[in-house]
Sequence to fold (258 residues):
Amino acid sequence: MGCLSKLKTLNISGNMIESLPKSIENCRSLEDINANFNKLTKLPDTIGFELVNLKKLSVNSNKIALLPYSLSSMTTLRILDARLNCLRSLPEGLENLISLEILNVSQNFQYLQTLPYSIGLLISLTELDVSYNKITTLPDSIGCLKRLQKLSVEGNPLVYPRVEIMEQKLDTIKEYLSERMNRSPKTPTKNKLWLTKFTKWASFNGRGSSNMPRDEMRESFIMAPEYRSTDGFSTPKNTSTGMFSPRRIFSPRHYFSK
Fold:
């Protein structure tokens, strides 16, 4: 498969496939992968470092528990469909997906319980479907998604925001979350870097420049670890997480830590 250097569309849906070969990373012209309705439990660890032209990734109706961290390097990705899996969390570095328009992680049922705060930095997001999971709290940062036109949260045991808020129009919900983020004294004290990024990209409180060139956005957002090429493959140069590494500083896990 790795020899198919000009392949743009791969449809392997509706089979009994349990894994994808690592050689798929050599298909660097791929723009669309449809691997729905299989038995995948994971994706190749470094797939995101290599398939830099991918625009659509559909892996719904599988058994995937975790999406690889390298996925955050897919800055051209527009559609990510990972519903009906066993997802326990979304990958760190989610904010790097600056072209992502549609994110569907619905129907992971009892497995998906939280959303990362970085979801508010998906500057191109228009549709977000997190329905039928175990999510109890929506992050205030969702109020920063200026382009969001559709939000689906039904089927979750939501405690926050309250039911009467979620029954309002989307614009009202976003305004409520944005105001809560603005009023909360914990936001800047726990992680001032988050607030700085929301403000810089005009996703928070209407400040900043929303007409930033795409290349400049990419340079500022990408925080993936460096990697070196070996025999046609890219592997992480340093997978450790240092005290002051960008991966640690901007990690949603670090944001919520006490």
Remarks:
- The radius of gyration is 18 Å.
- Confidence is low (pLDDT under 50) at residues 187-191, 206-210, 219-258.
- Helices lie at 47-50, 163-166, 170-183, 186-190, 192-200, 214-221, 246-249, 252-256.
